DNA sequence: GGCACACTGGAAATCGCTTTCCCAGGAGGT
DNA sequence: ACCTCCTGGGAAAGCGATTTCCAGTGTGCC
């Protein structure tokens, strides 16, 4: 690999001058030498060693994003939003997937810390396990103590800048909309109870139903993915309206009903949460709560990159979108 | 930030010993000192500076993946497959998205080269533009000359290890299956002509139809995404069977037909390509050509990580999957 | 004409870690 | 008892950049 020294030698200048020409500096370099250096670099195909730059400068141009699962469109959208702003800032992105294993999340943050990345973005739900959360928070604190910046999309549990989607209130608003259509017997495909996002959405829905004086929904726990929705849909009993705590689960539920000959929305109404773009062409089209995922990802990164004065927690509202998968009962 | 020197001082040992204990080495360290060092590192919360390690070792533990668009499930699946094997090897992943801009692709490879990443994975279709391809190939060659490893998923055009999906043959097989069902008048939602993946699939389909002695399909070019499929579906004329060169476009076409009251498959049959998991619950379920995307991503990374002796081009067959979106005409 | 000052260019220290090389001491062979 | 071989420890030389300091050269101004 050709180094800066090679370039300097070939151009007949000092290392310092070559560095100033090629890798940016406050100092000026004369036109003659500048040209010589540039030509040499070009001829040799020089490319700065970023590891060395990072070491010398004491700060790199990489940020880290930690998601649960890239193939889940929710995280893909979040990551995409963040990556766009990152690209705009000239930053490189390291993406880590944890596959919902909190230990992996901690390990990944540790690695990012070792990489001296400029900022870390944690996307994805916290778990109800306080011990794990505390360990993650400790790792993050150590990172921040060294000048690192952190932001998170999800529950405000880590003591860092946070973009907090209105899981609870969005689900509550959805519940009220559905009740207004005449539904009274609800079931919730609630996902795993220890996953905060799932739990918040479920709780928001349940409490809104209760506040309306309606019978408590039938809550069915299970995995947070398509198959979780599919199997939980088998236990919704006599509910006229089923709320799946995310769109992917709702799609699983639709598939289950279709197979069993249960018509949606004639026999049962189904609603999801997130408004995943890839799923908008689903039939029947899915009633859901829209979250501006890309913006949230982008915003979280902005928070992380901002000069750190005070902590910011930004709440993002969800918008209830009524589509064909629910029908009015009256 | 606490450095190795801090740890060594606190433990009362030399830098060398501390390094050997904490960051792995062939050399042994006595139990007493080893314990002292470990305790000191723990107390101080030491975390190795990877930039420095990379510089000193001359090789990092990062790989780069370049995709067009993470929110496209095709690339998400590919990236996920690669990331799983990367995690298994203890490698970190830098993901870059180009949003189909070949200049960005080149720029990103250049940056990865500067990062001295161990390997680069190029996922995503080449463009027909030879000049751009040549520049990318040149950048890759420079990277490889410096010891970098490269693999690519897609067309074998870069002179690097390649996992090549059977775009042409898969589409041809699909055409034969559809013809066997009695279809004779075809249309192809062909995507952009300069995108090799799209072009190959289109060509494979068209040539198979021709070989069967059937009238040439009506080829409609357009964008490679959902909206491209949606609008191209408006021009399929009297075709009884429409092949969209990817599943996402096929879903767009389904939406367009639905809006216009054209029934699928009764009035027109629709087929896609890729067998995207997220789209499997589509109604009607999509006839398509299945590609093992995760495996392909994983395999490509394996190729890249393998000791470089000879170049490997691995062809991956596609499997025709007939589902509800096509019907037999007889 | 002389003096301070801005500007350019280069030598060398530095960033944090790995690794080679050297040294001392104990084990093993004869 | 002597010599060799291995082993664990430390000093110091890199890795490839950045950046501080220093020196030399024109400029502007009195």
Largest interface summary: A-B, 50 and 50 residues
The third-level CATH topology of the largest domain in chain A is: Rossmann fold
Query: What structural class do you assign from the helix and strand content of chain A?
Result: alpha/beta
For the largest beta sheet of chain A, what order do the strands appear in spatially? Answer: 2-1-3-4-5-11
Describe this structure in words.
- Two copies of one chain form a homodimer.
- By secondary structure, chain A is of the alpha/beta class.
- Chain A has three domains: 45 residues, no CATH class; 129 residues, Response regulator (Rossmann fold, 3-Layer(aba) Sandwich); 125 residues, 3-Layer(aba) Sandwich (Rossmann fold).
- Chain A is built from twelve helices and twelve strands.
- In chain A, the strands form three sheets. In chain A, strands 2-1-3-4-5-11 form a six-stranded parallel β-sheet, with helices on both faces. In chain A, strands 7-6-8-9 form a four-stranded parallel β-sheet, with helices on both faces.
- In chain A, helix 2 packs across helix 3.
- The first copy, chain A, is elongated.
- The termini of chain A are far apart.
- The mean pLDDT of chain A is 93.
- At the A-B interface, helix 4, helix 5, strand 2, helix 6 and helix 11 of A face helix 4, helix 5, strand 2, helix 6 and helix 11 of B.
- Chain A binds a DNA duplex (30 and 30 nucleotides) through helix 2 and helix 4.
């Amino acid at each position: 690999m050709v180094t800066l020294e090679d370039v300097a030698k070939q151009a007949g200048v000092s290392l310092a001058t070559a560095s100033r020409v090629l890798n940016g500096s406050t100092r000026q370099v004369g036109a003659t030498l500048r040209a010589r250096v540039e030509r040499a670099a070009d001829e040799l195909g020089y490319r700065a060693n970023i590891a060395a730059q990072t070491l010398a400068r004491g700060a790199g141009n990489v940020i880290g994003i930690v998601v649960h699962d890239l193939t889940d469109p929710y995280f893909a959208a979040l990551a995409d939003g963040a990556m766009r702003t990152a690209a705009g800032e000239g930053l490189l992105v390291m993406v880590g997937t944890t596959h919902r294993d909190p230990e992996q999340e901690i390990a990944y943050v540790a690695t990012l810390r070792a990489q001296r990345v400029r900022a870390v973005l944690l996307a994805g739900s916290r778990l109800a396990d306080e011990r794990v959360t505390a360990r993650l928070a400790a790792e993050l604190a150590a990172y921040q103590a060294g000048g690192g910046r952190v932001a998170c999309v999800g529950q405000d549990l880590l003591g860092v800048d946070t973009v907090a989607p209105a899981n609870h209130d969005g689900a509550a608003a959805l519940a009220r909309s559905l009740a207004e259509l005449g539904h009274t017997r609800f079931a919730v495909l609630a996902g795993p109870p220890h996953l905060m996002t799932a739990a918040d959405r479920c709780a928001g829905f349940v409490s809104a139903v209760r506040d309306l004086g309606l019978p408590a929904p039938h809550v069915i726990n299970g995995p947070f993915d398509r198959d979780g929705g599919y199997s939980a849909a088998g236990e919704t009993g006599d509910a006229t309206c089923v709320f799946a705590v995310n769109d992917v689960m709702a799609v699983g539920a639709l598939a289950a009903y279709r197979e069993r000959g249960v018509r949606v929305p004639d026999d049962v109404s189904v609603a999801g949460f997130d408004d995943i773009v890839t799923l908008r062409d689903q039939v029947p089209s899915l009633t859901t709560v829209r979250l501006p995922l890309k913006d949230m990802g982008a915003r979280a990164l902005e928070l992380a990159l901002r000069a750190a004065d005070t902590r910011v927690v930004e709440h993002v509202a969800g918008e209830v979108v009524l589509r064909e998968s629910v029908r009015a009962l009256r």
